[in-house]
Amino acid sequence: MDDLFVGIGIALIIEGALYTLMPDGMKRLMAAAIQQASGSLRAVGLALAVLGLGLVALVRY
């Protein structure tokens, strides 16, 4: 359970750093995401989740 909270904390740090360092770039990224089809966003999200799971499995085992 500790690993889960560490992972969430790291994700929040990265997200906060992106908004702090390049707020205009994040606005453009969100505007571009709104223009994308839901299926495309879903496919990219799934691919990133699988990649993340593979990375965690590689590191942990």
Residues in helix, %: over 70%
**Strand residue percentage:** under 5%
Decide which structural class fits the backbone.
mainly alpha
Main beta-sheet strand count, sense and barrel state? none
What is the terminal-to-terminal distance?
A: 17 Å
User: What is the number of domains?
Assistant: 1
Order of helices and strands: HHH
* Model regions low in confidence, pLDDT < 50 over at least 5 residues: none
Mean pLDDT: 94
Number of continuous helical runs = 3
How would you describe the oligomerization state of the chains in this entry? Answer: single chain
Number of strands: 0
What is the overall silhouette? flat
Radius of gyration: 14 Å
Structure description:
This protein has 61 residues and is an all-alpha fold. 92% of the residues lie in helices and 0% in strands. The protein has one domain. The protein has helices spanning 2-21, 23-35, 38-60. The chain is flat, with a radius of gyration of 14 Å. 0% of the residues are buried. The mean pLDDT is 94.
Throw out a few tags for this protein.
3 helices; 61 residues; mainly alpha
Helices and strands in order:
Blueprint: H1 2-21, H2 23-35, H3 38-60
Helix pairs in contact: 1-2
Question: Summed up, what is this model?
Answer:
With 61 residues, the chain is mainly α. The chain has one domain.
